[in-house]
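As the work plan foresaw, our protein records have gained a C-alpha cell line. A representative record is set out beneath this paragraph:
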Amino acid sequence: MRTLLNIIWLVLAGFWLFLGYLAVGVLLCVLIITIPWGIASLRIGVYALWPFGRTIVAKPTAGVGSFLGNVVWVVLAGWWLALAHIISGVLLCVTIIGIPLGIADFKLVPISLMPLGKDIVSTREGGFDRAVVPAR
C-alpha cells in the first residue's frame, strides 16, 4: 500500500514539491554561508519525493543552535515551502482519493518550517530494513 501511495503522491504532488526543495537547496548551496540550510532542503526534498514509509523524529541532541538555524530558515525559504505544502494539500483534499495525500502533505508543513534538529527515519520493521538507532 505504501508503494501505491508513494507512486500516486509522486505523480500528483511529490515531484513538484521536490523541484521546489531542489531549487531552494541549490540556491542556498551556491551562497557559501548557507550550505547547512541547502543540505537540509535537499534532505527534506528527497523525503517529500517519497514520504510514505518514513517519519520525522526530533533529535535529542538538538539545542539552541538548531532553533536559531530554524529562525534563519523560516526567513530564507521555510515559509514559501510551507505555503506550497498547504496549497497542494488543499488541492489534494478536493477529491476523495486525494484526502490521504493531502493529510500527508499537511504533515510535511512542520518540517518545512523547522528542518534543523529533525531526523527522517523509516517506519518499516523487517529483516531487510536498516535498524535506526538514535544517537546518544
In short: The chain has five helices and two strands. The chain has a mean pLDDT of 85. The helical segments are 2-30, 35-49, 64-92, 99-107, 109-113.
